[in-house]
Amino acid sequence: MARPILSRIALMSVASAMALPASAALDIGDPVPKFTANAALGGKTFRYSLAEALAKGPVVLYFFPAADSSDCSIEAHAFAEAIDQFTALGATVIGVSADDIDTLSKFSVKSCQSRFPVASDESKTVINGFDALMQTRPDFANRLSYVIAPNGTVAYYYQNLNPDKHVERMLNAVRALPRPGSPK
Known about the structure:
Helix content: 25-40%
Order of helices and strands: HEEHEHEHEHEEH
Largest sheet: 7 strands, mixed
Radius of gyration: 19 Å
């Protein structure tokens, strides 16, 4: 008699665990983990600091699965084409993936057109800190974009494996941020 009850309890536990979302993006208003990482811009490597970037204004942080894959190249190219619009709004852009820095150094020239940096997170510390790990393929980051307000909190996020809407949505979110000196 005890065995069927225990089997049902075990089955219910498994079923309820499967019903929970595997992972979700940080929510709007959540503080983001500050990080430093090896990054590349125009083929040159340097140490990127999120705190230093936020001191200058909002940051668009986007995660992507793999440099040189078709969709990641499309997305990087789209961010590169829109970088002047982000700059005009006072925002900077950084891409992050689990690729090694040598791969990203080449990607920063080819797909990012030397217009914005990409950071290497081989240990997936940053990826995990931003809930950006791809659940179905845990060796990769999910395609997830954030707008981070200068105070270090999430202002907006968008998650979709299709790269087509990330730039448009990030631009709209940066435009919606309160401007320094403007009435709230």
